[in-house]
Amino acid sequence: MAAAVRFVFVLHDHQPVGNFDEVIEHAYRDAYLPFLDLFERHPGIRLAMHTSGPLVEWLDRTHPDYLDRLARLVAAGRVEIVGGAFHEPVLAMLPARDRIGQITSFTRRLERRFSTKVSGMWVAERVWDPGMTADIAAAGIEWTILDDSHFKAAGLGEEDLDRLWLTEGDGATLAVFPVSERLRYVIPFAAPHATIDHLRWLASRRRGALAIFGDDGEKFGVWPDTHRACFEEGWLEAFFSLLEQNADWIEMALPSEVVRDTPPAGTVWLPECSYREMTEWVLPPERQLACVAARVAAATDPALAAMAPFIRGGTWRNFRLRYPEANEMYARMLAVSTRLERLRRAGPADPAALEAATEALYRGQCNCAYWHGAFGGIYLPHLRAAIFRELVGAEKAADRAEGRSGAWIEATTADYDFDGRTDVRLSSDRLDAWFAPAKGGMLYELDLREQEHNLLATLDRRPEAYHEQVLAGPGLARSIVDGATPARFKQAGLERLVRYDHGRRKSLVDHFWDVDAAAAAVADGQAPERGDFAAGAYEASIRRNPGRIQVLLSRTGNAWGIPFTLSKAVTLEAGSSDLEIAYKLEGLPAGFRQHLAVEFNFAGLPAAAPGRFFYDELGRDLGDLGTALDLPHARALGLVDDWLDVDARLSFGTASNNATTGVWTFPIRSVSQSEGGFELVHQSVVVMPHWIVTPAADGTWRVTMRLDLGRFSARGLPASERLVAAPH
Questions:
Q1: Strand, coil or helix: what is 49?
Q2: Quick one: DSSP state of residue 495?
Q3: Does residue 47 carry a pLDDT above 90?
Q4: Which domain holds residue 180?
Q5: Which of 125, 129, 402, 495 does the annotation list as catalytic?
Q6: What is the Cα–Cα distance from 503 to 439, expressed in whole angstroms?
Q7: How far apart are the C-alpha atoms of 244 and 9, rounded to whole Å?
Q8: Stretch among 125-139, 414-428, 449-463, 714-728 having the lowest mean pLDDT
Q9: Which of 165, 315, 405, 657 is the most core-located residue (most Cβ within 10 A)?
C-alpha cells in the first residue's frame, strides 16, 4: 500500500565565489560535517543534496573525504545528487548560452565525482522566469523545485500544492516540485513534532500527498543559535528519529523517484517569481514596508484572506535598479560573455585560453554579490571584488585566446550600462577605465589587470527598510531569523552611524563646496553642493595617437549660479599603469573664488588591517586606510594594500595661481544586515584633493594630477616588512 504521505527533503549547501576560507571552514565544521555525521547514523532518512559548484570545488581541495562519504551514500540509495548552474548564478540574468553552459558543465562534474546520473537541479534563489524552461530542458534536466508562492501566483490553491506539476516553454516540459513555505519556517525553528503534525494533516487531506522541503543547509548550524539547537540540544537527532518512528506512513522519497512513478497533476505556467521574501527585498524601502504590511493585513483579515496569495513584490532583476553597482557588475559580465561568444564563432587562436575565460566568466556570474536581502550580498566588499576578479581574469584569458600580447591600447564607446547614454571604455594591457559622461563624467570602473582588481567596486550608502530597526537601537530591533528575539548589533553605536550618500561614490566626481567647508562636514555629508557638475552631463570626445589615447570630458555648468566650463582630460599610454589627469576651468569671471574638490574612491582596500596604509610624498606612514586625514599642503598621497599588491599614488602638479593642494581622506562605511545581525562594513576610501580656485587673467584655471597604479611588490621590500608597516 502506498504511503500516506511522501516526504521529499532537499538540502541546499552553498558558499559564494570569493568567500573567505575561514568562513567556509566554519560552515563546514558547524553545519555540513555534523549534519553528515548525524545523517549517516539514521539509515531510515533519505534526502536530495545540492552542493553548489564553488562549495564542491572547495570541498575537493580541503575535505575530499566529505565528498567521498557522500558518494558512498549515493551508491547506497540514500542520497540523490541535485545539479544546478555550476557557480550558482541567478539564471534569469544570463543569456541562454550561459544558462545551458553552466548547467551542463556542473552536471558533468557531479556525475564524474559521484558516479551517478544527475536529473534534477536547484534554481538559485528560486528566481524563476518562464523563458528558462526550454534552456533547462536543453541542458538535460528533468525536474526542479520552486516555492509554493510561484504556484499560488499562477492561481493554484493550497490544496493543489501537495503534488508534482509540469511546466512548459517552447515545447519543452519540466517537472516542478512546490516547496512548502510552512515547512521552511518550522524546520528547524519549531519543535520537531510540528513537522510530523503537518505531514499527518496532509495525509488526512489526501492519501499519497507530497510534502516538499527545500532550503539552505546553513540553517542547520551556521545561522545564529542553530548549531546549539540542532546538535547540542538535539533538535536534528529528534527530528530524524521521529521520521524513522513514523516510517509506516511517512515515506522519505527522492525527487527522481517521484518523477518516475508519479503522474503529474497537470501543466501549469508559472509567472516570473521568487520566494516571497525575495520579492519584497527587491522593492525600495518604503514600498517594501508597505508590501509587508499589506501581506500581513491580508493574512489576518478574513475578508482579505483570498487576496493574500497575490500580494507579492517586484522582480529580481530590479535589484539592478535599487543598486546601480549590481547593474555595473551585470553589464561587465554581459560584455565578457558577448566577447567570448564572438570568439567561439570566429574560432579562437588558443582554445584552452577560451575555456579558461569561460570558466572565469561562470565564476563571475555567482549570484550572491548581485543582490541584498536578509544577507550581506552586495554589501560585502570581498564578494564584489571576487566578481570583478573573475571578470577581469576572463578578459585576460580572452586576450590570450585572441592571440593578443604585448603593449596595446584602445578606446570604445557604447551604452555599456543600458541607461540609454553612451559610455567610454579606455583599455590597455595594464588598465581598464570606464567613464559615464552623462553621470558627472565620472570614472565608474577602474580595473588593474595585473592584480585583477577593480578599484571602483564601491557601494553607495542608501536607505534600507531595516534601518528603522537599526535606528531604534539595541533591544528594540528584531532578528531576521526569529522575529521574537532581539537583533544582534555586532558593533556598539550603529544607530548613530547610519549615513546616506547624496551622489555616487566613484572617481573624478567634481564638487564645489563652500570656501570654508570643513573636512568633517564633507565626510559627514553635511556640506551642501554649490555646483551642478557632480551629477551633470558632460560631453565626451576621444583623441587617438599611436600608443596613447585621451578621453576629454567637458561641461558648461555653474557654481553658485556663475556659469563656466569645466574640462577634464584623462590620458593612458600603452604599457603604462598611470592615468594622467588634467583639469581646466574656462570662462571664469574676474573675482571668481570657489572651492573645487575632485573625489576619488578606492575600493577593496580595508581599514585597520596590517599592510594597508597611507603614505606621503616622502614615503612616511600616515596611518591605516580608515584614517581621516586633513592635509593642507600635499604634493602626493599613496595608498597601499600589500595583500592585493596595490600601490596607488596620486600626485599633484602645480595649480594655476599657485593654488595649494589640500587633501581630505575618510572611509565610507555602511550599516547593513546579515543573518548574524547588524554590522558596520568598510566600503571604500575617499581621497579628495581640493583647491581654492581663482582665475588667471584670461579667465582660466588649471591643475594636473597623476594616478600611478603600480604593484607594491615592485618596491622590493622583504615580505615581512611589507606586511607590518609603510617604509620610513
A1: strand
A2: G
A3: yes
A4: 5-274
A5: 125
A6: 10
A7: 14
A8: 714-728
A9: 165
Q: What is the DSSP letter of 417?
A: T
- Cα angle at 500 between 496 and 503, to 5 degrees? 155
pLDDT in tens, 112-164: 999 999 999 999 999 999 999 999 999 999 999 999 999 999 999 999 999 99
Distance from C-alpha of 438 to C-alpha of 540, rounded to nearest angstrom: 9
SS (H, E, C) 52-113: CHHHHHHHHHHCHHHHHHHHHHHHCCCEEECEECCCCCCHHHCCHHHHHHHHHHHHHHHHHH
Specify the 3-state DSSP secondary structure of 300: helix
Cβ proximity of 124 and 106 under 8 Å? no
Domain count, the chain: 2
Specify the DSSP element, H or E, that contains 361. helix 351-363
Integer angstrom CA distances of residue 246 from 199, 257, 372: 10, 20, 40
**Residue 216 designated active-site:** yes
Q: Any idea what the CATH number is for the domain that residue 108 is in?
A: 3.20.110.20
Three cell numbers written together for 59 = 570541498
Q: Which is catalytic among the residues 111, 168, 181, 216?
A: 216
24 is a domain residue? yes
The Cα–Cα gap between 359 and 354 comes to 9
Instruction: Name the helix (H) or strand (E) containing 576.
Output: none
Report how far residue 488's alpha carbon sits from residue 484's, in angstroms, rounded to the nearest whole number: 13
Residues forming a β-bridge with 685: 602, 667
Residue 565 pLDDT more than 90?
Answer: yes
Round to whole Å and give the CA distance between 421 and 318: 19
Q: Can you tell me whether residue 331 is helix, strand or coil?
A: helix
Is the separation of the CB atoms in 332 and 445 below 8 Å?
A: yes
Rg (alpha carbons) of the chain, rounded to whole number: 28
In a domain, 372, yes or no: no
**Domain presence at residue 228:** yes
Is 125 a catalytic site residue?
yes
What confidence tens digit (pLDDT) does each residue in 579-630 have?
999 999 999 999 999 999 999 999 999 999 999 999 999 999 999 999 999 9
CA separation for the pair 462, 449 (Å, rounded)? 30
CA dihedral 371, 377, 383, 387 (to 10 degrees): -10
pLDDT at 484 over 80: no
Q: Kindly compute the dihedral angle of the four CA atoms of residues 303, 309, 312, 317, in this order, to the nearest 10 degrees.
A: -170
pLDDT value of residue 645: 96
**Could you report the per-residue pLDDT of 198-236, keeping only the tens digit for each?**
999 999 999 999 999 999 999 999 998 999 999 999 999
User: What is the chain's mean pLDDT, rounded?
Assistant: 94
pLDDT of 446 > 70? The answer is yes
Last-in-domain residue among 222, 255, 274: 274
Q: Is 631 left (phi over 0), alpha (psi -120 to 50) or beta?
A: beta
> What CATH code is carried by the domain that includes residue 620?
2.70.98.10
Asked if residue 110 belongs to a domain, the reply is yes
The pTM for the full model equals 0.95
Give the integer Cα–Cα distance in Å for 348 and 343.
Answer: 6
Band of the pLDDT at 258, cuts 50, 70, 90?
very high
